[in-house]
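User: I'm new to structure prediction. If I give you an amino acid sequence, what do you actually give back? Let's try with this one:
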Amino acid sequence: MTSFRQPTALPVAGLIAAIGALPLLRASGWFFFVPLGIFVFAVWAWRSGTDADPNGVRVRALLGSRKVEWSRIEAFVPAGRDKAQAVLTDGTRITLTAVRPMDLPRLVAASGKELEQAQ
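Assistant: Good question. You get back a string of structure tokens that encode the predicted 3D arrangement of the chain. For your 119 residues, that looks like this:
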């Protein structure tokens, strides 16, 4: 299995920031949302990512995940400088969390098939 994840520093920094924001709770109850929001960010950074194996691709987000079989994926396309998307056979696009355009050959290699190069 090939996994793509957010940089490890993100959830660690989020947890440190959430702990650092706890003294704000003494100032006012309204500050409850500051450490809570930072903690949610840390959980997202720890959980989100994309996993690929010979069966398909699983895209993980904060609250759920989506499994897509290789037969349903028509193409992978860059979506900006640091993002990549999977184009499905029905035309919908799925953003691949933590996958950059330069990671696409490694993602395709997880399928056990060759990446076709345009001439």
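You can read the tokens as a compact description of the fold. Here is one thing that stands out. Helices lie at 9-21, 24-27, 33-47, 104-109.
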